[in-house]
């Protein structure tokens, strides 16, 4: 967690606990833990978005365009595949745009998932224009009456100005209905820096947090809610396609204290 969030929680606990009378029958440990849980819940619900994405897509004009951002190694490609599986399970047709024309094997990795999921994939040449790949996928979706377009983008950080400008251009061409940032729950403060960076250059509507099944508790969620007012929509809790689940503040608060 960020220092600001930690300080806020400490202040909450001080207000809640210092000077409070405790009867002999009360369990002091449970009292402190419940106070902490209340504080965590308040932060997690601060910007929690209860919007049903499936209903939103169903009620929107088609194709519904979703673009994914994230640095290399966060699990973005696998997350897109999980997302495609979730959409297909809910009755939507999907097409994937492999607009990461920068990283070696990025398109092959997506192609493997697309083949398993029986989802069409639009690719481009390595080193080619990723905005063109996104555009072609959207036009293909329109002509084939596909419901949802999922656009992958190259992982990048602020040190690479060319990739940053490229990302802005992809967003400008695609005009997405939703922009999703994928973050690694194990990244800690680095994840918060990534979130701040992507918000600055292109903005985003939702975060997907990956690798929550690993040792990390995922305190980054608290920092996102408190500092950036950004909701976590889904969390990845495994490697298979079914392991992308909707974020639940109550469950997460319990997890943080388990």
TrEMBL record:
<dbReference type="GO" id="GO:0006614">
    <property type="term" value="P:SRP-dependent cotranslational protein targeting to membrane"/>
</dbReference>
<dbReference type="InterPro" id="IPR027417">
    <property type="entry name" value="P-loop_NTPase"/>
</dbReference>
<dbReference type="InterPro" id="IPR003593">
    <property type="entry name" value="AAA+_ATPase"/>
</dbReference>
<feature type="domain" description="SRP54-type proteins GTP-binding">
    <location>
        <begin position="231"/>
        <end position="244"/>
    </location>
</feature>
<keyword id="KW-0547">Nucleotide-binding</keyword>
<protein>
    <submittedName>
        <fullName>Signal recognition particle-docking protein FtsY</fullName>
    </submittedName>
</protein>
<dbReference type="GO" id="GO:0005525">
    <property type="term" value="F:GTP binding"/>
</dbReference>
<comment type="similarity">
    <text>Belongs to the GTP-binding SRP family.</text>
</comment>
<dbReference type="Pfam" id="PF00448">
    <property type="entry name" value="SRP54"/>
</dbReference>
<dbReference type="GO" id="GO:0005047">
    <property type="term" value="F:signal recognition particle binding"/>
</dbReference>
<dbReference type="GO" id="GO:0003924">
    <property type="term" value="F:GTPase activity"/>
</dbReference>
<keyword id="KW-0472">Membrane</keyword>
<dbReference type="GO" id="GO:0005886">
    <property type="term" value="C:plasma membrane"/>
</dbReference>
<keyword id="KW-0963">Cytoplasm</keyword>
<keyword id="KW-0675">Receptor</keyword>
<keyword id="KW-1003">Cell membrane</keyword>
<dbReference type="InterPro" id="IPR000897">
    <property type="entry name" value="SRP54_GTPase_dom"/>
</dbReference>
<keyword id="KW-0342">GTP-binding</keyword>
<keyword id="KW-0378">Hydrolase</keyword>
<dbReference type="InterPro" id="IPR004390">
    <property type="entry name" value="SR_rcpt_FtsY"/>
</dbReference>
<dbReference type="InterPro" id="IPR042101">
    <property type="entry name" value="SRP54_N_sf"/>
</dbReference>
């Amino acid at each position: 967690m960020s220092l600001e969030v930690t300080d806020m929680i400490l202040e909450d606990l001080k207000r809640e606990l210092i000077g409070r009378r405790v009867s002999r029958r009360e369990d002091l440990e449970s009292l402190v833990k419940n106070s902490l849980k209340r504080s965590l819940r308040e932060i997690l619900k601060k910007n929690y978005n209860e919007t049903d994405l499936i209903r939103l897509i169903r009620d929107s004009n088609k194709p519904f365009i979703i673009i994914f951002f994230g640095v290399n190694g966060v699990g973005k490609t696998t997350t897109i595949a999980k997302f495609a599986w979730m959409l297909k399970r809910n009755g939507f047709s999907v097409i994937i745009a492999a607009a990461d024309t920068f990283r070696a094997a990025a398109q092959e990795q997506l192609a493997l998932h697309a083949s398993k999921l029986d989802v069409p994939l639009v690719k481009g040449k390595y080193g080619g224009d990723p905005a063109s790949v996104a555009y072609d996928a959207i036009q293909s979706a329109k002509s084939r009456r596909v419901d949802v377009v999922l656009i992958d983008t190259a992982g990048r950080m602020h040190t690479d100005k060319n990739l940053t400008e490229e990302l802005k251009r992809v967003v400008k061409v695609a005009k997405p209905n939703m922009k999703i940032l994928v973050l690694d729950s194990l990244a800690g403060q680095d994840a918060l820096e990534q979130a701040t960076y992507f918000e600055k250059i292109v903005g985003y509507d939702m975060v997907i947090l990956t690798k929550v099944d690993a040792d990390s508790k995922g305190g980054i969620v608290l920092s996102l809610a408190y500092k950036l007012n950004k909701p976590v929509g889904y969390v990845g809790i495994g490697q298979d396609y079914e392991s992308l689940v909707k974020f639940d503040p109550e469950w997460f608060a319990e997890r943080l204290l388990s």
